[in-house]
Design brief:
Oligomer: single chain
Number of strands: 14
Order of helices and strands: HHHHEHHEEEEHEEHEHEHEEEHEHE
Structural class: alpha+beta
Distance between the termini: 60 Å
Largest sheet: 10 strands, mixed
CATH class of the largest domain: Alpha Beta
Helix content: 25-40%
Low-confidence stretches: none
CATH topology of the largest domain: Alpha-Beta Plaits
Number of helices: 12
CATH architecture of the largest domain: 2-Layer Sandwich
Amino acid sequence: MKLAKQILDETDGKICKHCLGRKLSKTIEGTNNIERADKVCEELNINLDDVDCVICDNIFNKLDDDLYKKIDEKINQLGIEFDTFLVGSQIPKDIQKRDEELSEKFNLGVETLKKEVNRLIGLGIWERFDKEAEFEAQDIVFNIDLTGNPKVRIQINPLYIEGKYNKLKRGIPQTKWPCSKCKGRGCEECNFTGKQYPESVEELISEHVLKLTKGREAKFHGAGREDIDVLMLGSGRPFVLEIKEPKIRKLDYPKLEEFLNKVNEGKTSYHNLHVCARRRKAEIKQSSPDTYKVYNAIVKCDEAFDKDRLEELTKLNEIRQQTPLRVLRRRTDMVRVKHVLDLSYEIIDDDKFSMRIKTEGGLYIKELISGDEGRSNPNVSEILGVNAICEQLDVIEVSEK
């Protein structure tokens, strides 16, 4: 009680139960700050029910039914669906300063006023809406402005959907390409679409998911990418689709897969769709030493090749590749060392053969075949002694990260 009396003297008795109980949270037992303050009031025979608090300006009186009514109205206005939430608040700086100064004067390592406000609002939301407070990864964040009449804003956090895709038709890029002439603004060249190509793997899924989730925007994150003229076969390429500001978060993923694969039949297909954590967005893009890709390439030579030399291709191992000329405008010019893990071939005719090749992720197959004007060493053209190009390329497998 000695500390309680000192705090009451310091504030001339003008301190609310929330602020007094908070300062005594480490010295007086109780399930909440009001209960601690009540013990002091009973012991000292004082009444703090209607006091004008010199610390918080009675800000806790704003945490009333009207505030939760505003929260309910905002949820309904936005039409949002959520299971987890976090609370943040804006409180006048002078109030926070007085709270901190009082704690410092008596050397109290207790909860701050702002943390108590956030905790109490969170408790109120839990009681009224039966939703769980989550500090690590939440569906939405309530931002409560208590600097005047309470205002409620809601931040809707992204929804992350992980899966795999197959690309079954050539000429489809992985993501939307802005028109090279108008840079996405729209012109006659692109038929005022702003796009270089009419559709992409990204758009063929995102437009439908955006409609279902009522999201604002979608962003596609792939585990690498294949060229526009390359198919993505086998079990598919991992990806994460990020939906920004989704109002609806609960989807029937088996039903969604069935729908997507029906409307995109012959173009793309999507599998194993499920909700994932935000970190997966970065994880699937990181290339580890254990990741690999398997390709099937049709190699076309400008003249008949020596069939005996084909066997030398199976001995390919370390490849030193300088950034290919065709991607130099968007990638750093440097030499990358990658490895061929396995290679087999099948002769088609005198100047053509197929090649199945397993490599570390990040090895450029077209340049491995052509040599890319000496930027890829060793290479297929050099080993066979003829000019060779990749006539057709398919990705057969992309390893899991």
